[in-house]
Amino acid sequence: MTRLSFPIRKFWNDAEAVAATEFAIVVPFMLVLYIGGVELADGMAINVKVSATAHSVGDMVTQNTALSTSSMQNILTGATAIIAPYPTISGGTSLMTVTVSEISSDSSGNLTLQWSQSYNGSTFGPGRTSIGANAPYGALSVPASLNGTVGNANNPNNENDQVSFIVSEVSYAYTPNLGSTLPGTINGTVTLADAYWIFPRCSTNSPTNSNGPAYYDVKYGSTLNPSNITCTCVQHLQAKSC
Q: N or C, where is the chain less crowded by C-beta within 10 Å?
């Protein structure tokens, strides 16, 4: 009996390989925390870049009185550099879409889409077809911070009337390495998006289809329409002919 009890006691008190066992238990959790932290950091970094892109594109557009197709393409193409070093195309699929639109309001604050252009990382084309929800865009409404003066009987929503806005929208399809295991993903992808509303800094008189007093806008067209397509903000302020 004494001979048997000694080996049993020795086995019971043996602490060898305990660290290895604990390591094997902890490692999976540590890896999830580490990889999850990296994914979260990447997602937050891309989200910041998406917002920066929206702000930069809107700012560049409003510094013009008119934009040709080539000028708009240069702005939209250059915007993709802001997202670097993150890719804009993966496996032949565009990950990023940049859309610039001009939205104007009439004397009652009703919004109208004047023009819209888009770039998806590989091709250019028309952007929005309306301010309402139309794929891949959601409905647009003027942010509360840009509401007009209270008390206009013709404008019960207190929205800015007879003004124009440049709206820059950016979306990015971020696919974490953990894919569909993360909450909030659709087929393993998280769509990061932001929109930026800004008044034209330099502008021309309203187009002929405006209602009521003239609002001001950034004209968009071909190299012949409008004729002042090469006007810059400085030239406009200096009343130069262009």
A: N
